[in-house]
Amino acid sequence: MKVILLQDVKKVGQKGSIVEVAPGYAQNVLISKKLAVPATDANLKNAEAAAAAQAERRAMDEGMSRIILAKLVGQTVLVAAKASEKGSLFKAIGPADIVAAIEKEFKIALPESAITLEEPIKKKGEYHIPLSHLGASASVNLVVI
Questions:
Q1: Residue 139 and residue 123 share a domain
Q2: Model pTM?
Q3: Which of 47, 59, 137, 144 is the most exposed place for a label (fewest CB within 10 A)?
Q4: For residue 3, how many other CB atoms are within 10 A of its CB?
Q5: Total structural domains in the chain?
Q6: Residue 60: which CATH number?
Q7: By residue range, what is the domain housing residue 132?
Q8: Long-range contacts at 121-125 (CB < 8 A, ≥ 24 apart)
Q9: CA-based nearest residue to 96, from 81, 83, 115
Q10: What does the pLDDT look like over 60-107, one tens digit per residue?
Q11: What is the C-alpha radius of gyration for the chain, rounded to an integer number of angstroms?
Q12: Parallel, antiparallel, or unpaired: how do β-strands 121-123 and 88-93 relate?
């Protein structure tokens, strides 16, 4: 029986895909738990329309992230942190701290996953931080004072 998956199903397929499964599995598991709908003509048209709308939304999001990250290219972000006399920080600076500093300084909200750090920052100084989100990339200079 052909079904359209409404959610990702392990070992079956991803959301929106059309898969062939055993009729019993389709009726008793997928359809009853609202994980899938039968692949009728009407449901197929709805699935195609939803896929097209999602592709358009994704393209729009990618364009917006390029515009947003372009505003950050070459900018300097300041983060104040308590440190010892030798310059070692009492609390390491991670992606959440950097995102908060960017939002505070530039009024731009980014997800923590956009920040790429090899390891948390543990000393005062200047750092080059790469950013990437939805295919767009940029970098900012981070100054820990």
A1: yes
A2: 0.64
A3: 59
A4: 25
A5: 2
A6: 3.40.5.10
A7: 73-144
A8: 121/89, 121/92, 121/93, 121/94, 122/88, 122/89, 122/92, 122/93, 123/83, 123/87, 123/88, 123/89, 124/81, 124/83, 124/87, 124/89, 125/87
A9: 115
A10: 878 888 888 888 888 999 998 898 888 899 999 999 999 999 999 989
A11: 23
A12: antiparallel
